[in-house]
Design brief:
Sigma-54-dependent Fis family transcriptional regulator; Rossmann fold; 3 domains; alpha/beta; five-stranded parallel beta sheet; Helicase, Ruva Protein, domain 3; 13% strand; 46% helix; 19 helices; 14 strands; phosphoprotein; transcription; nucleotide-binding
Length: 452
C-alpha cells in the first residue's frame, strides 16, 4: 500500500482528503509543513499533497526540502483556486501537478493513480538504460573482418535515422548485440530499448502485452497496464524472432507502423507512439513473404534497411580475437589461466561453429571451468578439429607461419578495439581486457599505441 502525507492547515480539507484516500492508501495528515516534513524524514512517503499557505513551513518550502531529500517523491500542491502561475512555479521546483479546491474525489484518485504509473514507467526506463549500458560495456562487438566491418558501417549510418531496420542472421551471430549497439549510436539512446520475444507472445495476451490495458478491461485486469510500445515511446522497440509472429500479430504491427498509434485494451482513446522499430530473424523473410508465410506488406515496412550479419564460419579471422576476449571475460572463473595454447587456436580455427559466436563463447566459458593448468589446452575445449570447411580458405592459428596472423598484431588490434569501445577510458578498458592499468599502459607503449 502506497504512503501519502497530507499537509494542510484547513481541518475540513484534511478530513476530505483522508476520506478520499482510505482505504486505498495509507495516509497521515498534518496541520503544518514542519510536522509533515518531520514525519517524512522519519518515515518517507510515495506521495505528498501539500497546501501552499501554512504556518511554520509553507508548501513551497516543504516541496524544496522534500526534493532535496528524495526527488522521486510525487508532490501535489493544493491551491484555493486554479492559479496557473503558482502551479507553474511549484512544478518548476519539482512538483508533479496541482489540485484545486474544492476537491473532486474521483479526479483526485485518478490523478494520483496516473502519477504513480508514470513514476513507475520512469523507473523502468531508467532500469532499461542502466541495463543497456552495462550490457554494451560487457559485450562490445569485436571484429577485424572486412565484411563484418562493412556491416557495422551500415548499422552506424542507419542508427542516425528513424527508419525501421530488419536484422537477419543465423542463431548466435549477435543480432541482439547489434540492436543494442544501434540503439546506443542513435539519437534515442537516452530513452528505453524494449526487447520483445515475438515467439513468446501467446494469442490471448498479445494485445495486452504490446499495447497495454485499462483497469477492468477483462477478468483479472485489476489495474491499468502499460504495454511494450508505450514503454518504448521516444526509444526503440526490438521485435526479436519476428518470423515466428502469427498473422494476427502481423496485422496489428502493420497498423502501428502505418499510423503510429495504439489503443490500450478496453479504451477507445488513441495513443500516439514515437518508437523506432528494429526487428530480427534467423529466417529468410523475403522468401517467407514470397511464399505467403509472412505478409509481404509488413516485410517491406520492416526492411527499409536490412542488415545481414555473416555467420562466424565466414569470418574466421575473428575467432582468435573473440577467443581472447571471452577468455578475459571469464577469467574470474579461473584466474590462473593466462592464455590459449597454440594448439588450442588450431582446434578453434578448424571448427565451423553451427552455433556461431554464442557457441564459441560457451566453449571458452566451459573450458575455463574445466582447465587445471595456466594455459587453455585443446582437451579443455571439448570440440574436435574438423578441418577447413568446403569453400573456405584455410586460416592458421596466430603466429603459426609468416603468411598468417602475427599474435602481437592481433593483441594490438584487440587493445585498440577495446580502447575505442571504452572511448579511451583506460581503467574500464583494462577491466574488460582482464589486466590491470599498469599492464595496459606497458602494452600500449610496447605496441606504439597513442595515449588516447
Amino acid at each position: 500500500m502506497k504512503n501519502v502525507i497530507v499537509a494542510d492547515d484547513d481541518p475540513t480539507a484534511r478530513k476530505i482528503l483522508l476520506r478520499m484516500l482510505q482505504p486505498d492508501y495509507q495516509a497521515a495528515a498534518f496541520a503544518d509543513g514542519r510536522d509533515a516534513l518531520d514525519y517524512f524524514l522519519e518515515n518517507g512517503a510515495d506521495i505528498i499533497i501539500t497546501d501552499l499557505k501554512m504556518p511554520r513551513l509553507d508548501g513551497m518550502e516543504l516541496l524544496r526540502r522534500v526534493m532535496e531529500v528524495n526527488p522521486e517523491v510525487i508532490v501535489f500542491v493544493v491551491t484555493g483556486y486554479a492559479a496557473v502561475d503558482t502551479a507553474v512555479n511549484a512544478m518548476k521546483m519539482g512538483a508533479h501537478d496541482y489540485l484545486a479546491k474544492p476537491f473532486n474525489p474521483e479526479d483526485v484518485l485518478v490523478r494520483l493513480e496516473r502519477a504513480l504509473k508514470e513514476k513507475n514507467l520512469e523507473r523502468q526506463c531508467t532500469s532499461y538504460r542502466q541495463k543497456q549500458d552495462l550490457e554494451a560495456q560487457r559485450n562490445p562487438i569485436i571484429t577485424n573482418n572486412s565484411k563484418m566491418q562493412q556491416t557495422m558501417d551500415l548499422a552506424r549510418r542507419s542508427a542516425r535515422t528513424d527508419s525501421t531496420i530488419l536484422i537477419q542472421g543465423e542463431t548466435g551471430v549477435g543480432k541482439e548485440l547489434m540492436v543494442r549497439q544501434i540503439h546506443r549510436w542513435s539519437p534515442r539512446n537516452e530513452h528505453p530499448l524494449v526487447p520483445v520475444n515475438c515467439s513468446a507472445l501467446a494469442e490471448g495476451i498479445m494485445e495486452s502485452e504490446l499495447f497495454g490495458h485499462e483497469k477492468g478491461a477483462f477478468t483479472g485486469a485489476d489495474s491499468r497496464r502499460i504495454g511494450f510500445f508505450e514503454m518504448a515511446d521516444k526509444g526503440t522497440i526490438f521485435l526479436d524472432e519476428i518470423g515466428t509472429a502469427d498473422n494476427r500479430f502481423q496485422v496489428k504491427l502493420l497498423r502501428v507502423l502505418q499510423d503510429h498509434i495504439i489503443y490500450r485494451v478496453g479504451s477507445p482513446k488513441a495513443i500516439r507512439i514515437d518508437a523506432r522499430v528494429i526487428a530480427a530473424t534467423n529466417q529468410n523473410l523475403e522468401q517467407e513473404a514470397r511464399e505467403g508465410r509472412f505478409r509481404s506488406d509488413l516485410y517491406y515496412r520492416l526492411s527499409v534497411v536490412t542488415i545481414s550479419i555473416p555467420p562466424l564460419r565466414e569470418r574466421m579471422d575473428d575467432v582468435p580475437l573473440l577467443a581472447d576476449h571471452f577468455l578475459a571475460k571469464y577469467r574470474h572463473i579461473n584466474p590462473t589461466v593466462e592464455a590459449l595454447t597454440p594448439e588450442s587456436y588450431d582446434v578453434l580455427l578448424g571448427y565451423d561453429y553451427p552455433g556461431n559466436v554464442r557457441e564459441l563463447e560457451n566453449i571458452i566459458e566451459r573450458a575455463m571451468i574445466i582447465e587445471t593448468t595456466e594455459m587453455l589446452r585443446p582437451e579443455s575445449l571439448l570440440i574436435h578439429q574438423t578441418g577447413t570447411a568446403k569453400g573456405r580458405p584455410a586460416i592458421k592459428r596466430p603466429g603459426a607461419a609468416p603468411d598468417t596472423f602475427d599474435m602481437k598484431e592481433v593483441e594490438k588490434k584487440h587493445i585498440l578495439h577495446v580502447l575505442a569501445a571504452c572511448e579511451g577510458k583506460k581503467i574500464e578498458a583494462a577491466r574488460m581486457l582482464g589486466i590491470n592499468k599498469t599492464t595496459l599502459w606497458r602494452k600500449m607503449k610496447k605496441y606504439g599505441i597513442d595515449n588516447l
